[in-house]
Amino acid sequence: MDKQSLLNLIVDNMKEGIHVVDTNGKTLLYNKVMADVEGMDPDEVLNRQLLEVLPSLEGNSTLLKVLKTGKAITMNYQTYFNKDGKKITTLNSTWPIKRDKEIIGAVEIAKDISNIEKMIDSLLYSINYTDNNNKNYSNKTASYTFDDILGQSPEILNAKQIGYLASKTDSPVLIIGESGTGKELFAQSIHNASSRKNKPFIAENCAAIPENLLEGLLFGTSKGAFTGAINRSGLLEQAHGGTLLLDEINSMPLDLQAKFLRVLQESKFRPIGSTKEIKVDIRVISITSKDPIKLVKEGKLREDLFFRLSVVNIYLPPLRNRQGDIEILKNHFIKTFEEKFNKKIAGIDDEVEEFFKTYTWPGNIRELEHILEGVFNIIQENETIKMEHLPYYVKRDYSNYRNNEYVNPDKSIFSLDLMKRKDLTLNEYLNSIEEELIIEALKLNDYNITKTAQYLGIKRQGLQYKLKKMSLQKPTI
Ligand SMILES: Nc1ncnc2c1ncn2[C@@H]1O[C@H](COP(=O)(O)OP(=O)(O)OP(=O)(O)O)[C@@H](O)[C@H]1O
Ligand SMILES: [Mg+2]
């Protein structure tokens, strides 16, 4: 193996992203990790001038800065949302490459620390912290109410209406929406509008906890369950009388989903290692940022659990589809940050206004909030918000857009199924899917009502009621 192939092998198998440019800013090395982190294709970048590929980096690129100054920039922390709305946090360091005393290039190493960030978030979450709206965030209290949910679009008003009505019942609620659309806000608001508001609100993100610990966390353990086990009450018990919020429900392992379904059906459970059953009265709200129908089809969410959890559905549409709300939220965050940073700004220039309208907002409202917070860090008193104040990844999108390379496929995670949805309302659509699933289940179980009901994890009477409502009959052939 020659030296070059060996180097390529190493670079392609590194866990860090690496980007090397020569003195002219031409890319010599750009590995797959870096490409993934930056959402680029290595072939687009390799052997080309950096500013030619990413013109928006002009004046911003750390690689070019280091080439110019000869000084390293280390531990540069960057957070952004990739095209799929995934929040990515990287830690970048950039060094000059010198031969003798002459600078011959620069190298940037980026480490994707998104998982570490997530862990820190969930730690902070369990400790307590105050967010930008001065609301106390912890997994044991609910601070938000429906009044905090801003927006005048029919979609958000409809979602609030459903949420409010559901807060008066004990039925399970499933909240569906892309990252940063306000799912947690809705869950807290439902709890706070309900008769359970003075009882516990316990939230757990099923994706933040290693699979093997989640069961113990939910059910609790009893002395003797395993060596060293102590009596520890689980979240189910802690939420008694109140609301249990399960975030990213599809990250719950399938066998635990089955166990959890039984708890929902029987309102009782047995802590691990215990012989005694505990009765609980909890209202369950669950959250998913993926299309639940797709999750069911892919076998990641048990169908029976899905039906049980989604008695009431709240769908939060992406921000890009609610232009009027962008305006309202933007003004709200500007006001909040003017107070927080004690800085009055003169306004927003037309180019930024225009950009806000065309941008896809993969990280939705949270992204808008973060971007404006970033702006307030660097903007001067009485200055107007301009494109240069926006983060680099946003400007990159914008320059692609101006070069007509920008495609806005509106890559909503729900787009596929929404196509099939035609002009049905969410409830009509979900009913039609429910009907399809019931028919499939009936076929599978030879039209035996008891078996089908068991299969779907619902009561026999419940199935009969649904069949009557849907006027479904056993085929005569
Ligand atoms: N309708 C809204 N009005 C005002 N602020 C909102 C609204 N929706 C979301 N936000 C803001 O956006 C932030 C993110 O909201 P939230 O945590 O509820 O999102 P999420 O849907 O749970 O996101 P993720 O899937 O990433 O967990 C909140 O801190 C809140 O400040
Ligand atoms: Mg959330």
Explain this structure to me?
It is a single chain. The protein has 4 domains: 110 residues, PAS domain (Beta-Lactamase), CATH 3.30.450.20; 201 residues, Rossmann fold (3-Layer(aba) Sandwich); 76 residues, Orthogonal Bundle (Helicase, Ruva Protein, domain 3); 48 residues, Arc Repressor Mutant, subunit A (Orthogonal Bundle). Helices cover 44% and strands 18% of the residues. It has 21 helices and 18 strands. The strands form 6 sheets. Strands 2-1-5-4-3 form a 5-stranded antiparallel beta sheet, sandwiched between helices. A 5-stranded parallel beta sheet has the order 9-12-15-8-16. Helix 14 runs parallel beside helix 16. It is globular. The chain starts with a helix and ends in an 8-residue tail after the last helix. Bound molecules: adenosine-5'-triphosphate and magnesium ion.
Task: Label this structure with key terms.
477 residues, alpha/beta, Beta-Lactamase, Rossmann fold, Helicase, Ruva Protein, domain 3, 4 domains, five-stranded antiparallel sheet, five-stranded parallel sheet, 21 helices, 18 strands, binds adenosine-5'-triphosphate, binds magnesium ion
Overall 3D shape: globular
Ligands and ions found? adenosine-5'-triphosphate, magnesium ion
Radius of gyration: 26 Å
Name the beta content range: 15-25%
> What is the CATH superfamily of the largest domain?
P-loop containing nucleotide triphosphate hydrolases
The helix/strand class is: alpha/beta
Count of domain modules = 4
Instruction: Give the mean pLDDT.
Output: 85
Number of strands: 18
Uncertain stretches: 404-419
Give the fraction of residues assigned to helices.
Answer: 40-55%
Largest sheet: 5 strands, antiparallel
The CATH architecture term of the largest domain is 3-Layer(aba) Sandwich
* Number of helical stretches of at least 4 residues: 21
Assign the CATH topology of the largest domain: Rossmann fold
